User: Fold this.
Amino acid sequence: MSSILTNTSAMVALQTLKGINANLASTQSEISTGKSVGSAKDNAAVWAISKVMESDVKGFKGIADSLALGDSTVAVARQASETITDLLTEMKGKIVAAQGSNVDREKIQEDIVALRDQISSVVGAAQFNGLNLIEGADSVSILSSLDRQADGSVQAAQISVSRQDLTSTDGALGTGAGLTDLSSNVTATSTTLSSAAIRDDGAGTPTDADISLTGDFSGDSLSFNIGGTTVSFAAGDLSATNTTAAQTIADAINAAQIDGITVANNAGTLEFSSTRNFDTTAITVTQGGASAGTLGATSVTLDQRAESFTFANVTVNQGDGYQFALSNGITASYVAGAGETMEDVVKGLKVAIDSEVNADIATKVSKNGSDQWVLEIANENASAATVTITANDDANDNAVQTGGLSGLDDVDVTSDAGAQAALDNIETMIQNATEAAASFGSVASRLETQTAFISNLTDAMKAGIGALVDADMEEASARLQALQTQQQLGIQALSIANQQPQNILALFR
Assistant:
């Protein structure tokens, strides 16, 4: 049935043409913008995901800037640490030269002072954008990533950079109310530094190391082994009188000039003594010949002059402080920084004691059989000295941390004692500077790796966003041509449908 009121064919053709035009407009939008999802109405879910990822990409650009700033700061600190290591090594050469007695120590000291001032200059200048990583104690955090959780929350990740204090700051214990006594961490053979040579008979008490002679030694042969040095007497060398024999033996041993060892004759008793600071000396006697004489002992032990302070293998926390106060006026403190160990504490205390430049006090650091660090202190003064040990855990964080180059300002090679102390302590300073440079090198490597990762991650996220919202241009081009053809056909079909009512007029002619 044909109708002049309702043109069904035109309606169908018109709806078809509208659909074609809508698809054509969408395709033209994809081609012009390059996106298949340009707004939330195109695909709400995909558009929302892409916007979240785009915000993360923006954040990663900021992270890349933070990493670049951090890397530059660490690079400055690493270069400064390496420079300080080189300067300390040069200073060591000067200190070694000062060990001789026929050198101009005053001139050498001037060179050392110049190197010390240069090190101070390097420490002060080693900053980037106002941040100096070789001064102070607090760690520094560098923004390294943004971690998005499954629930949509975002957490910032940080790379922590520990400062490596290479200043010459002397440590000072805290005095806050929250201090906890840690003195059980240190045990001493004695807290009294004897003023006399220590003579030990091996029984553990500082008594005379005596060997008594009784009877006739004229036909006896005797061989004394004193710490590896042998003094021998053949049969006939000694008198039948024990006191005379003892004097002959004492004179011969003293004439041998064994370092730090002397012997006296006390009415036929040999009394051995030692002024060796850090060496225990064993004395053994071998008797032969007629063996008519009798020895009160065939072996004795001369203990070292120094007293030993053994530090337990415990964790050292930042702010832990140890102080040795000697009655002769020496007060030495060491306050640990972050990540330090008992080795740092013991070596730091040695440097602090040596920095007092007291010719009567000698120190040594060693390790015992239990892998514990030991600080040995010897007193060569005519008066005994007592040691008071204080060990605090600074819970209130008001202690002054000891600088890695503490004692540098006190290096003085103009005396024998100062030159020897400087030789021992320069090694600790070089080790601290080397460890600082190595620490910064490790952080720099990590920052470099993280920077490369952030760059690659940003590229991957951009590619992912593109896969979600970017238009397939080849497909869009082909679809555009097809839709343009469909549009032309739709227009033609609508034109034909609009011609149908005109054909009804022919029926009335």
